[in-house]
Amino acid sequence: MTVLKDKIDKNSRTIIRDEKTEELLSRSFQYMKAGYPIHFTGPSGAGKTTLALALAKRRKKPVMLIHGNHELNNKDLIGDFTGYTSKKVVDNYIRSVYKRDENVTETWRDGRLLEAVKNGYTLVYDEFTRSLPTTNNIFLSILEEGILPLYGTKLTEPFVRVHPDFAVIFTSNPDEYAGVYQTQDALLDRLITIYIDYKDHDREAAIVADKAKINEKDAAAITELVAKLRNECKEETGPSLRASIMIGRLAAEQKIKIDGSNPDFVRLCLDILSHQVSRCIESDEPFKTAEKLIKKACSNMEVTKE
Ligand SMILES: Nc1ncnc2c1ncn2[C@@H]1O[C@H](COP(=O)(O)OP(=O)(O)OP(=O)(O)O)[C@@H](O)[C@H]1O
Q1: Domain named AAA+ ATPase: which ranges (predicted)?
Q2: 68, 126 in Cβ contact below 8 A?
Q3: Could you say which of 1.20.1250.20, 3.40.190.10, 3.20.20.70, 3.40.50.300 is the CATH number of the domain covering 19-77+111-195?
Q4: Mean pLDDT, the chain, whole residue set
Q5: Ligand 1 centroid to 206 CA: how many Å?
Q6: Which of 276, 229, 223 is nearest to 251 (CA)?
Q7: What does pTM read for this prediction?
Q8: Ligand 1 atom 10: residue of nearest CA
Q9: Per-residue pLDDT band at 98 (split at 50, 70, 90)
C-alpha cells in the first residue's frame, strides 16, 4: 500500500486584509453589532466563505458552521432523539420480596442551530440557498421573534429563546446557479445582503502570491491569464481565484517555471482550466476551443525575468 505523506499546505482560511476587504469587514461588523444578520452573495470562488469566517472570528464568540444542502432538515438543525437509556433496579434483599423498578428514557441530542442559539454562538450558514426554503423558514422566527420553535420534536418546551449574543452570517451563490433554491422574500427582507464580486487583479495577485508562496509578478501573470479566460465565458462564470491559487501552488510545488512558453506550465494550465472553460463558452467543440483559448492566453502571458 502506498501512503502519500507530502501534502500541499492548503491553510486556506487565512485572509489577506487589503484595504477594500478590511473596509468591508468593518462595515459588516458594525451592521452585526447593531443586530442585523449579514448575507454575502456572489459568484463561486469570490471569497464569501473566507469573509464570513473572518467576520465571525471578529466577534470573539464560538463559531458554528453549517453547510446548506437539500437534505438538511429540522432534525439536523434543532436536534433529535438518538435512542433510549434504560435503568433497571432489582431489589431482592429480603428473599420473600421481589421488587423490580425499570425506567426507560429517550436520549436527546441538540442540533447545531439549537446549540448555537442557546449558547450565543456566531453561526455561519454557508451556501444556505442549497437547503430547501421550507428548512430555512425556521430562521424567520429566529430573526423576527427571537425564538427558535421546537416543532416536531416531542420536547415539552414549545420554543427556546435566542441568546442575546447569537448572530448569523449567511453566504449564497446567485439564483441562476445550479442546485440552489430561490430564497423566500420574507427571509431576504431581514438580511443585509452584500454582493461580493471577483477582486481586481492586484488583490487577486496578492492572495495568490501569499497562498502559493510565489512572487507577486508570477502571481499577477497567473491571475491575469485566468481573468482573461473568465472574460471569454458567456454561459456560466468561468475559472475563479481558486483556479489561480491551484496553478500557483502546483507550479511552486513541482518547481514548474511560470512561463507561457514552458510546455509543463501550459500542461498544468490545460489540466486545471480546460474543463471549467469548456463549460462556460459557446462552441460546437467546447473542449477543443477551450484548449485553444488557454494555449493562446499562455502564449500572450507576461513572463517574469529572472
Ligand atoms: N481575502 C482573501 N484572503 C485570502 N484568501 C482569499 C481571500 N478571498 C478569497 N480567498 C481564497 O479564494 C478561494 C475561494 O474563496 P472562498 O471559498 O471564500 O469563496 P466562495 O465565494 O465562498 O466560493 P463558493 O461560492 O464556491 O463557496 C479560497 O481558497 C480562499 O482562501
Answers
A1: 34-202
A2: yes
A3: 3.40.50.300
A4: 86
A5: 13
A6: 223
A7: 0.84
A8: 47
A9: confident
